[in-house]
Amino acid sequence: MPLATATLRRTRRLAVASLLAAAALPLTACQGGGDPAPAASSAAAGDPTAADGGSGGAPGKGATRTGAGQTSAAGGSGARDGASAGNKGVDGTWAGTLRWLSEDQLTVAPEGGTEQAFHLTDRTKALGAAALCEAPDGRVHTDGSGYGTTSCSLADLRKAARLGTVEVRVTVKHGTATKIAEHYRP
Hints:
Blueprint: H1 3-24, E1 63-67, E2 70-73, E3 92-102, E4 105-109, E5 116-119, E6 125-128, E7 150-152, H2 154-163, E8 167-173, E9 176-182
Parallel strand pairs: 6-9
Antiparallel strand pairs: 1-2, 3-4, 3-8, 4-5, 6-7, 8-9
């Protein structure tokens, strides 16, 4: 077989393999909040990850561990953590822009990171400062980190997500948001 033909075949194979790998990449970390395949338990005596259920992936760029299989993204960097053994969805904390996906699913888009989808439930706690919702006294109430402390409704949260301009910190457990706090920018 001539050298040119062999080189052409290798190039085609490499191109097809690269295309398949790129197409399969979004399917690997359950970033859309979908149901991951059940993970095999590796909980053995002496396994340090057995106490917290382990994790399906490493923290993303700029992320730090916050304990028990959770990941925290500082400064808007995307953080990813796979599903723990026996649990569905991702666990972690993301900071970024709140965006609309559907009635019961929003996303947070960290600056320079991967957009993370999460579900809303009646148990999701929404805390605003000014853009998400106002305090009854009309003042801005924030914690020491500049995140809102005024309780907001899920309707307020959905309205802000449709605008796509509100910066938030979202805490997610098993793919469901447990707390969403607006980052106040005066």
